[in-house]
Amino acid sequence: MITISAFRWVPPFAQGIVRDLRVRWALEEAGIPYRTHLLEQGEQGTAAYRQMQPFGQVPYLQDGDFVMFESGAIVLHIADRSPALAPSDPQARLRMHTWLIAALNSVEPAIQNLTAIDLFHADEAWAKARRPAAEAFAVSRLESLAAWLDGRDYLSDDRFTAADLMMTTVLRFPRQTDLVTSNPVLDAYVRRCEARPAFQRALAAQMATYQEAEAVQAVA
Q1: Any alpha helices (H) in 57-196, and if so which ranges?
Q2: Where is the GST N-terminal domain (predicted)?
Q3: Which of 30, 135, 178, 181 could form a disulfide with 82 if both were Cys (CB 3.0 to 4.6 A apart)?
């Protein structure tokens, strides 16, 4: 059975957006069972874990003797095994690849830059000076995405694919702002994708892990 790594607990601001959610969702869409290797605090820095994930992040995916990391690569690997995530037509599949990489390369860095400023550096002078430009850049990327999605339900070929899965997880990051929810096109798109039963199962599984850890901490 496939094993993926995930944190046993993260602070509330990160719950529901840690990147193992992407892989859980892809596996749920594909109907592939999996189990989780839940990391204890500090385990990601051990030599043993770095053999699985050199950067000490989550997730990795292990399938027998095969191990891979990076959530984008893992989701593409799962999509290659499932028509639920990738079209069979070669050109349509390439369009799916294009938009999945766009989510990671063209949209996520702008959003993550702003999110990091807000969550980790908000009171620092350099962050206050940098934030307006960071927000403007994030908004420009989101407006470009919204322009593409206007009149479309999904990113390509009139169907849900792994690209939509990835883009939705990216758009969940800036929850400390209304940049996504205030845009009718993007808000509707995220809600449409999040309404999928596979997403709901994946999110519930991730959140259940955190809730179990918090329950243990409460009685310790």
Answers
A1: 71-79, 90-102, 108-120, 125-149, 162-171, 184-194
A2: 22-86
A3: 30
Query: Which DSSP helix (H) or strand (E) runs through 86?
Result: none
Q: Is the pTM value of this prediction over 0.90?
A: yes
Query: What count of residues does the chain have?
Result: 220
**Under a CB-based contact definition with an 8 Å cutoff, are residues 153 and 166 in contact?**
no
Phi, psi of 39 (to 5 degrees): -85, 130
**What CATH number does the domain containing 120 carry?**
1.20.1050.10
Tokens 């079209």 locate to: 87
Reported as a single tens digit per residue, the pLDDT across 114-149 is 999 999 999 999 999 999 999 999 999 999 999 999
| Whether residue 100 is found in the same domain as residue 185 | yes
Same domain? For 183 and 215 the reply is no
